[in-house]
Amino acid sequence: MTHTKVITDLDMERILVPYGIKMVSYKMLSGGSANTNYLIRTEDNAFVLTICDEKSIEETGKLASLLEYLKQHKFSTSELIQTTTEALTTTWNSKPVMLKGFIEGYIAKDISEDLLLYLGKELAQLHQIKAPDFIPREIAFGLQHFDDVKVYAPDSSFYKWLKTTQHYIENHINSDLPKALIHSDIFNSNIIVDQERKQATIMDFEEACYYYRVFDIGMMIIGTCSNKTTINLDKVANLLKGYRQEIQLLEIEKKALKAFTIYAATATAYWRHQNFNYVNFNPEMKNRYLEMKNLADYVMNLPDNFLFED
């Protein structure tokens, strides 16, 4: 992976020319392993400039089209700023560039039960938007990729665990489970909470796809209702309560949700293991997968009906 070098004032001015924006200041934002982000301020507004370090121009164009599609369907998330010629993206140094409106707020390490009620409704509203044809039909780090671990760690205890857990998950996948437009990566870090702590915005649709909607619920449970070692069941209850105010889950979804919560944690563990131990080896991060592996094991040991009492 080649990250964007620190750019100069002149670079930034040239990048912003297609948007007709006169900046007052800019600074690099932390976070984002696949992108380099800058906060741009003008006299009246603030924007986030994203230079996509890993996505192709075509992939960035699809992401931009999805954000525009969500705006058209009145789903609240990052809003793209078009160029003066109405283009959704530009390029700089052969890398794709997007400009988005800055959303005031903060990333919360701990999301309250009340906010999870709100976010559950937001998730259900997303799932009611018809999936556009141009998004993937499977998650990027799903079961079909687990055997990739054989390339670099075929005899590892992690690979053996992964295959055992995969077998459990596959036994709970029913082709009748409803699919929807899903985010598939909802962690606290992809949520902006407003200063009053009454509303929150789901961000970063990099991994959006058309897939089982219970996977998205399971991922949100893992991403917002856990404390790294256990699941806060009161938070889960509020998340599900909010969701069910918009969508009534089918019985087959209720029965499958435990397995898909395990699936979400397992898929995340797989991605972290592969990324930090092979693709982008990082000795400081190489064991980060264990958090998700342990969480998957924790959920596996809970009663089958722990998510629903009715």
TrEMBL record:
<dbReference type="Pfam" id="PF01636">
    <property type="entry name" value="APH"/>
</dbReference>
<protein>
    <submittedName>
        <fullName>Phosphotransferase</fullName>
    </submittedName>
</protein>
<dbReference type="InterPro" id="IPR011009">
    <property type="entry name" value="Kinase-like_dom_sf"/>
</dbReference>
<dbReference type="InterPro" id="IPR002575">
    <property type="entry name" value="Aminoglycoside_PTrfase"/>
</dbReference>
<feature type="coiled-coil region">
    <location>
        <begin position="233"/>
        <end position="260"/>
    </location>
</feature>
<dbReference type="InterPro" id="IPR050249">
    <property type="entry name" value="Pseudomonas-type_ThrB"/>
</dbReference>
<feature type="domain" description="Aminoglycoside phosphotransferase">
    <location>
        <begin position="28"/>
        <end position="226"/>
    </location>
</feature>
<comment type="similarity">
    <text>Belongs to the pseudomonas-type ThrB family.</text>
</comment>
<keyword id="KW-0175">Coiled coil</keyword>
